[in-house]
Specification:
Elements (H helix, E strand, L loop, with lengths): L9 H11 L4 H11 L10 H14 L3 E5 L5 H9 L5 E6 L2 H14 L5 E5 L2 H10 L6 E6 L6 H11 E10 L15 H14 L4 E6 L5 E6 L1
Parallel strand pairs: 1-2, 1-4, 2-3, 4-5
Antiparallel strand pairs: 5-7, 6-7
Length: 220
């Protein structure tokens, strides 16, 4: 028995994938194409996508939000986990990467479940709040520019229903959050977000060492 999380080397990681990952073929092809792009670092890990799909199904989610889409890999995991009348509001600013996303969403037959908003995410979130959609989302995934993480968190918390779940990516930031010599803007922003969520009694939370760190925050 271990009393803390095991260190994860490549051998153990590949074993986990071999006995856990059930990645649909369309998702595998999207992941491979995404890894060939210049910004492949933005791609979610496959076990992370599968984990989020499981969370969406456990929640019985109907209405989801994603902030930061890249090539739509995580979006597709979530959309495939939704019922036919479910929806994902996907926020991004890149025509280039979302063009790849749209191809695979169409192929997977879920493009009718995904509303892509190509605009600064804060503008999209503020429009949702102004339109009266506070408290209407079941699930949200945040994986965008780190310096706006607290802003995204606060808007998303308003948009989530009570009992809704927020998942925030990159909260361990390759371990840099624990390295006091790293004082760049992105690392500092993630540290601030981690402190903010930890102190926020409007949510139940847990930071998990999945992929690059996933924080789960359930709105009370």
């Amino acid at each position: 028995m271990a009393n803390k999380t095991l260190p994860l080397d490549n051998v153990l990681y590949e074993y986990i994938l071999s006995v856990s990952l059930r990645e649909p073929e369309v998702l595998a092809r999207l992941r491979i194409e995404s890894l060939q792009q210049s910004m492949s670092v933005m791609l979610s890990a496959p076990e992370q996508g599968q984990f989020m799909a499981l969370l969406v199904q456990l929640l019985g989610a109907q209405k989801c939000l994603e902030i930061g889409v890249y090539t739509g890999y995580s979006t597709l995991w979530v959309a495939l986990a939704l019922p036919p009348d479910g929806s994902v509001l996907a926020c991004d600013i890149s025509e280039q990467w979302s063009a790849i996303a749209r191809r695979y969403w169409d192929e997977a037959g879920v493009s009718d479940r995904i509303e892509l908003q190509l605009a600064p995410a804060l503008e999209t979130l503020d429009r949702q709040l102004k339109a009266g959609h506070a408290g209407s989302f079941d699930f949200a995934f945040i994986d965008a520019d780190k310096e706006n993480y607290i802003n995204y968190y606060e808007r998303t918390l308003q948009l989530l229903r009570s009992g809704g779940l927020m998942v925030i990516d990159n909260t361990l930031w390759s371990g840099d959050v624990a390295d006091t010599t790293r004082q760049d803007a992105e690392t500092c922003a993630i540290r601030a977000l981690n402190r903010h969520v930890h102190a926020d009694h409007r949510v139940q939370m847990s930071l998990l060492p999945v992929a690059d760190g996933l924080t789960l925050a359930r709105k009370i």
